[in-house]
């Protein structure tokens, strides 16, 4: 069977990763974006964001001749049998619902250019009902004699593990309307199934209607967000009860019905997906008359936001600073914030709890210095008012408080004795519960974790 040719429309995080990984799986791939600079970077062999392992695969794909990048939708229309929509669906200014402008422009640009039968597959995270709307757009803008069809196949990749998640997904979801669409979408994933077979694994293909496929994605992210906020709610209770949430999580996680993953209490979730997806999901449920069913997600969001504020109060407590009606006054203090990305192994600072905490400390009057192993450029653009230190050592030298806000290995493995010699005061807030409190206490530090007792 000849493999279908694939186009990925939108080469942001999602589309670039898929283009590169599917070329690695043996497909002929064209990645298309309206952003010429982004395309030039990718075509030049450089990934415009930090993702472990992706640079090597990009260079291999380009060298193989199977992977190309361009800005022409006409070229995509002529080239591919399957077109994957990978454009962003950002939050609207109401900070709740999703903006589908890019999905719309992608479909209405591509559809009139198609000259043969093709399958348009949505991958972007969208409100339920979008696939049917895309189908209507296609009916309006594509030549009706061609039989162009739509399918929906959400993705579940995590930044930092994206290559693995695309090459070895734990499931493929296929929202399809016809056997033709089913077979073509299956062929577009043959490389994934074949790789699994060589490794004696199986990748389940879950075939659904459109609405279920769309909901699978937001339901999965809502569940993950809820799991994190659950353990952070337990952290709040642990703080007043004098208990340790890390031990609690360890103990409950041994029950396989609960599991240990995504049970890490700390500064809470951030990034370009979980926060925005749970809000868009609530907005859509409200529109459909099922707002009550998702009211708990509002609470999930509130718990998450409260964790960021906790750092501020802990800082005031450790630094023995007054807390007035407007919050703690940290003026005259120098604080190092370690971590700017929303999680380790990523340079993404979108809705990063680390930067939010840094900004809150600065707003309370502290002189804040931020260091991150990968996200410095993005952080500077997002929070230009903060100051930035080029190394971990430079960040902590002379400070009165260290806040670990992202659990990069460089911070987890830092030597508290060495850092203790650089700071002015040995005070540390472990915003990700990633340090060993006993080791830091032995080196003379006063340690505060999230949801952990004062030792
Ligand atoms: C998330 C989902 O995990 C992916 O499955 C999904 O495909 C993706 O969104 C998406 O919608 O595209 P991602 O945003 O890369 O992936 O990040 P996660 O690994 O889910 O982490 C999200 C946030 O939760 C991070 O800020 C992380 O620090 C935090 N987190 C995670 C915790 O606070 N505790 C945990 O136990 C786990």
Automatic annotation (TrEMBL):
List each copy of the UDP-glucose/GDP-mannose dehydrogenase C-terminal domain by range: 336-437
Q: Which GO terms describe its molecular function?
A: NAD binding; UDP-glucose 6-dehydrogenase activity
Question: Is Metal-binding found in the keyword set?
Answer: no
Pathway terms, separated by semicolons: Nucleotide-sugar biosynthesis; UDP-alpha-D-glucuronate biosynthesis; UDP-alpha-D-glucuronate from UDP-alpha-D-glucose: step 1/1
Q: Which InterPro entries match?
A: 6-PGluconate_DH-like_C_sf (IPR008927), NAD(P)-bd_dom_sf (IPR036291), UDP-Glc/GDP-Man (IPR017476), UDP-Glc/GDP-Man_DH_C (IPR014027), UDP-Glc/GDP-Man_DH_C_sf (IPR036220), UDP-Glc/GDP-Man_DH_dimer (IPR014026), UDP-Glc/GDP-Man_DH_N (IPR001732), UDPglc_DH_bac (IPR028357)
Q: Which residues are involved in binding NAD(+)?
A: 33, 38, 89, 125, 159, 276, 350
- Any idea which residues are catalytic in this one? 273 (nucleophile)
What processes does the entry annotate via GO biological process terms?
polysaccharide biosynthetic process
Q: Where does substrate bind?
A: 156-159, 217, 262-266, 270, 343
Alphabetized, the UniProt keywords read: NAD, Oxidoreductase
Pfam families (alphabetical):
UDPG_MGDP_dh, UDPG_MGDP_dh_C, UDPG_MGDP_dh_N
ATP-binding listed as a keyword? no
- What EC number(s) is this enzyme filed under? 1.1.1.22
Q: Which SUPFAM superfamilies does its entry note?
A: 6-phosphogluconate dehydrogenase C-terminal domain-like, NAD(P)-binding Rossmann-fold domains, UDP-glucose/GDP-mannose dehydrogenase C-terminal domain
Q: Per its UniProt entry, which superkingdom is the organism in?
A: Bacteria
What the entry lists under PANTHER family is as follows: UDP-GLUCOSE 6-DEHYDROGENASE TUAD (PTHR43750:SF3)
Q: Which family does it belong to?
A: Belongs to the UDP-glucose/GDP-mannose dehydrogenase family.
Return the protein name: UDP-glucose 6-dehydrogenase
């Amino acid at each position: 069977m000849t493999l279908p040719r694939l186009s990925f429309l939108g080469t942001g995080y999602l589309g670039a990763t898929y283009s590169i990984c599917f070329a690695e799986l043996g497909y002929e791939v064209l990645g298309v974006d309206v952003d010429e600079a982004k395309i030039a970077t990718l075509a030049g062999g450089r990934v415009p964001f930090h993702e472990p392992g992706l640079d090597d695969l990009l260079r291999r794909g380009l060298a193989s001749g199977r992977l190309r990048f361009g800005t022409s939708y006409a070229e995509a229309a002529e080239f591919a049998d399957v077109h994957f929509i990978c454009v962003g669906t950002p939050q609207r200014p109401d900070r709740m619902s999703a903006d589908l402008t890019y999905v719309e422009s992608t479909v209405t640009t591509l559809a009139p250019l198609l000259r043969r039968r093709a399958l348009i597959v949505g991958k972007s995270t969208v409100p339920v009902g979008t696939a049917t709307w895309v189908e209507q757009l296609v009916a309006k803008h594509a030549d009706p004699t061609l039989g162009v069809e739509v399918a929906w196949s959400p993705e579940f990749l995590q930044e930092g593990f994206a290559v693995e998640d695309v090459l070895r997904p734990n499931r493929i979801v296929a929202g399809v309307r016809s056997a033709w669409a089913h077979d073509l979408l299956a062929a577009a994933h043959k490389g994934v199934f074949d790789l699994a077979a060589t490794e004696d694994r199986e990748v389940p293909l879950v075939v659904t209607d459109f609405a279920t496929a769309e909901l699978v994605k937001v339901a999965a992210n809502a569940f993950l967000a809820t799991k994190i906020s659950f353990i952070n709610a337990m952290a709040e209770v642990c703080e007043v009860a004098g208990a340790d949430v890390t031990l609690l999580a360890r103990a409950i996680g041994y029950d396989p019905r609960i599991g240990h993953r995504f049970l890490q209490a700390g500064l809470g979730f951030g990034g370009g997906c979980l926060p925005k997806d749970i809000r868009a999901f609530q907005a859509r449920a409200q529109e459909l008359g099922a707002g009550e069913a998702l009211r708990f997600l509002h609470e999930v969001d509130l718990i998450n936001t409260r964790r960021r504020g906790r750092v501020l109060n802990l800082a005031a407590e450790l630094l023995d600073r007054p807390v007035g009606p407007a919050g703690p006054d940290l003026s005259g203090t120098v604080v190092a914030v370690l971590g700017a990305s929303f999680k380790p192994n990523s340079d993404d600072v979108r809705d990063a709890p680390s930067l939010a905490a840094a900004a809150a400390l600065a707003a309370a009057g502290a002189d804040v210095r931020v260091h991150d192993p990968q996200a410095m450029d993005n952080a500077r653009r997002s929070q230009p008012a903060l100051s930035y230190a080029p190394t971990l050592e430079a960040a902590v030298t002379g400070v009165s408080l260290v806040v670990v806000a992202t659990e990069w290995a460089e911070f987890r493995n830092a030597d508290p004795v060495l850092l203790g010699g650089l700071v002015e005061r040995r005070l540390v807030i472990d915003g990700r519960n990633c340090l060993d409190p006993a080791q830091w206490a032995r080196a003379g530090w006063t340690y505060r974790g999230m949801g952990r007792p004062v030792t």
